[in-house]
């Protein structure tokens, strides 16, 4: 699957915001053929298409965010029951995105790495 200019730009934005958050050991990779950021070999955010990213978050947190900001976060049938939150990339600002990337990274990071990051 070829990476489009749109998804490449989104991937670059995710990398920039993750770097600004100071997230350690972030790997630029792919997840099911689309650009993704991983920690410990696990994707914590992936680019679904030119409009949507998918964040790895606990199901209860996912439901809170959808209720809090339905213009940004949403659910589709494919993700029901899974710890994955579709997010409208054009609707989320960098500050909010950084908070969600930190949450997703913490959800997927190995315990020792997460503990070291949380201690900082």
Automatic annotation (TrEMBL):
Q: What's this protein's name?
A: MmcQ/YjbR family DNA-binding protein
Q: Which organism is it from?
A: Rhizobium paranaense
Tell me any Pfam family this protein matches: YjbR
